[in-house]
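Replying to the earlier thread about multi-chain prediction with a worked example.

Input:
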Amino acid sequence: MSGPGLDRGGGYRFQVDYLPVGTFRQFRILLFPFVVATVLLVGLPAALALGLSFTDYDALAAPSWVGLSNYTHLLEDRIFNIVLGNSVYFLALSVPLRVLGAFALALWLGGERRGAGGYRAIVYLPTVIPDAATALMWLWIVNPLYGPINLILKSLGLPQPGWLADHDSARLVFVMMACLQIGEGFVVALSGLKGIPRSYYQAAQADGAGALALFRHVTLPLALPWIALVAVRDTIFALPWTFAVSSIMTGGDPFYTTLFLPLYARIQSVDYLKFGLGAAATTLMIILAAVALGLIGLAARRGWYADET
Amino acid sequence: MQRSSAFRSGARFSVFAAALILAACGAAAPPTAAPAPRPAATAIAAATVAPAASGIVSWMVAGDNVEFDAYKRIAAAFEAANPAIKVDLVYIPASADYRNRLAADFASGSPSDVVFMNYQRYPTFADKNQLAPLGDYLARSATLKESDFYAAAMDTYKWRGSTWCLPGNMSSAVIYYNKKLFDGAKVGHPKANWTWDEFVASARAISRDDPSLGRVYGYGTEISLFRVAPYVWSAGGEIVDSNDAPTKLSLESDKAVASIQRYVDLQVKYQAAPSAVAEKAEDSLTRFMNGKLGMYMDSRRVVPLFRDTIKDSFDWDVVALPSQGTSTSILHSDGYCMPAAAKNKAAGWKLIEFAAGPPGQTTMTKIGRLVPSLKAIAESPVFLDPNARPANSKVWLETQIRPVPSHKNWPAIETAITKELEKAYYGVQPVKDAVQIAGKQAETLFK
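Result:
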């Protein structure tokens, strides 16, 4: 089996034992352009961002060193704290739901059945729609008076939320949107689940395991590395994803409830020419993502050890 | 020298580009020292000894296709009048993109020779010596003089003792009204000196559930400081402690709070304006064009849109804002400015003279979008065309207009106030809380 896994010490390793001699060298050659691009396009700007976050810089004159004041200003700022809360809310809700959705659908549609390919394509389809088009489509879907969701709710005699007009439901719309774009996680989940040897299930069944026991003691532990992989991927991409959709759909309205860290950083930097504040907000966003990744790592390890005992 | 200048430009652009990457995806610009901008005084000295204007002049503009076509016509006419000069028109359609591009161009040290800027935004750039003062150019001009412009427009481009741009237009907020809905509700058409109470009574009378149109509202507009400020002034209140050198908001005064409360009552108390949900479902601008809104507040900018979409489905006109004491409106204006780093200042000034002068303003006025800042054009049939809607265009020339304060952080301050007013307007928080929170939020931005 090839793929991410946990070694006995709890660390991740890549299982490629069966690969022929020399393959690692080829891996390194293939990885080289990506490593260079990552360093130049992600690592370097991130380092520059960190430096800029300690300055007052408007792009019109030289930056001046202000120490930690951008960070203290942000952490004392009411709006930034709302933005931070929105971002934590979105991460905490969308990532688990997306992972759960991807694996639940992979379990459901993973077997060979009539029309399975078509269903899988349907699950993947929303992912290939560009974010801008998705945003425009959802503006119609959640229109409080003319959108299909509220029209259905109205026909059923149920209360109709204001969705993007209502500060209680606006953030939820973004979570709903994110939960429909799970195609990539779904493919990874399908691949991971298909990699579990059939013999494990047969052995467990021979020992009298039922469906729930098979899932609890075979599927879940063996799928855990893949679940962690999808969760890590989703955590990294969740907040940047909000940028395009919130810019197009709400601009952060109503009352800042859909203003997330990436859009906030852009507004501070580009609209108000406060690049130091924007850089500090971005750095805090990276820290937030790192904390979330740490929690995922911790949960994955606990899952691994729980399975071991 | 040339190499050094190019290096400095490149270095500054690198800093800005990295900052943009930061803002977009989690990184930022480096703290490397960007060189100080060229002093504006150098620019003027250079212009004084500059030879006759010639060469290429770059001009960055924004707007829809109709406006772009008008700019192209102005550029062509300018080239015909000045054969030695060629205009390089840089067109950025959306105003938000235009602002981003403007900031990027200034940061890279290579802005266009002539740019168009709102009066709320130029102080940010003037504060950093990024604009060339135009006062000396205007004083020496053979075709334009300061008294040709309305003082209300001209004065707003004067800041810290210098004139930074020439006003290209001078619009203000007015009330657009649907005559058919007024007649249907048996309400008399609004008159020039109408009061707030008459306005509220009209809005309430028009608001109803119509069997074919659905819900009809008496009044609507997007909620912002720009829409509320004229009524605060009208009631004798103020937005800030000093318009020229503001240090704090003044919205917590009794007069200001009472005025804002009256505005909020339209929606919260009388339901004569769309709620947050109704506004999200169909904004007030669209409602007005669809004949489902009695009155709509905006500047002159919507006239071409209304002419094009409403056509003859109903008759409409404009009237001054209702008075809560003294009839007052708020200035909407954009100016032609010349960056301190402009490469061809001599030709740049010639173009500003032409675009802000009678040839340019006549062309732009004909498309219907603007109120001329030049008295001669504004008071001519070009603007006061009795055969084109709105029939009452003279309202823009008769209204007392005030600008928002000049401050380098004004766009951020305005946004902070608008967000809190929005909460009050949709009944989420009391007006007193809204102005208090806005005042606190603005405190740091005034520093």
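The longest strand of chain B covers residues 55-62.

Feel free to reuse this layout for your own posts.
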